[in-house]
Amino acid sequence: MTHQEIAHHRLVSQKLEKTSKISPQEIVHHMGAIQAQDYAMAKWAIGSRCDATEKEIEEAIDSGKIIRTHILRPTWHFVSAQDIYWILDVSGPQVKRIILADTKKHGYDEKEFGKINSAIEKILTGNNHLTRDEIIQELNLKKISGEYHLSPVLIMMYAELEGLVCNGIMRGKQMTYSLLEEKVPKPTAKLTKEEGLVKLAKRYFESHGPATVSDFSWWSGFSPTICKTVIHSIVTELNSVEIDNQTYWFRTDLSLENSFRKSVHFLPAFDEMLISYKNREASILLEHQSKAFTSNGIFKPVILENGKVIGTWKRTVKKDHTKIATQFFNETENHKKAILFKRIKDFENYLETKIVIE
Hints:
By secondary structure, the chain is an alpha+beta fold.
C-alpha cells in the first residue's frame, strides 16, 4: 500500500469520498470526536461529510444532539450525545491529572475544584445558560496561594471533564455553558476503563484508518504503551497492513481495491483528515507541511485533490456573500483552477449564501 492509497482509504473511512445522507450527529458519532476549537470551521468539518447546512448543524449543537466540550488531548471537540459520557469516563481522569499537576502547588486540588463545581452547578441549574465571564463573575473567587489566580479556562475545563458542564446555546457569536445532565441524561450503566479504551480504539480505527498505534496515541492522548495493549486485545476485530515496518490498522469491511475516485475537498482548519494523525505524510508532502500548519499546532483550511493537500484557502464573511481566497503550493493553470473551484459549490450550499472567489 502506498501513501496515495492510504490517503484514499482515509477519505473513505472519514466519509469524505462522497457526501453522506446521514445526519450531523451521526457523522460526529461515526468519527468518535471531531476537533472543534475553531467553532466556525469545525461546523464545516461536519458539513463537508454530509449534506446538512450550517444552520442545521447549529440546531443539532444547540439542542444537545452534538456536544462541544474539552475532551481527549485536551482541546475542544464535538462529541455525539450518545458518546459523551463514556468518552469522558475514559479520557477525563488523565486530563484532570494534567490540570491538577499545575494547580495543586497553588492550593487548588480536587477538594477546591469540587467546591467550585458545586457553585457552578447552583449557578446554572434550571437551564440557565451563561457565558464563561458571567460564570466567573458569579463565582467571585478569592486568590489562593499569594498572587495566584486560577485561570477561568481551567475552571471551566475541569468542570467539563467532570461531566458537569458543556456548551450551552450560542448567544450570537458568544458561547455559553449549560449543565450537561440538563442537555443529555446520564446513563445508568458505565463502562470499565478497559471497555472504554477498547471502544475508543475501535471507533478511531473504524473512522480514521488506516492508522498506526502512534496515530491513535496522538489522537486519544493515551501513551503508546497503553494503546499497543488495547490494540492487541482487538486484533481479531481489525484488519492491518505492513508498510515500511509500520502496521496500519483499519476496519474489517474497508475495501482495499484500487477503485480510486478523483476528488477535490475544501477542508476546514484543524480537520480530522490532517490533525488526527501523528504522521501526516500520506496527505501532505513534508516540504509543504509548514504552509498548512505551524509547529505550535495552528492548522489552516486546506485544499485536497485526490487526498493530497495542494494548497490552502480562507474565507471572509461579507454582508451578502462570502469571499474565498486560495493559495496553491505549486503553479496551477487557470483551466485546472476552474475545475477545482466547482467543488466550492458544496460550501456555498452549506452556508446558503453566494461564494465569490478572489
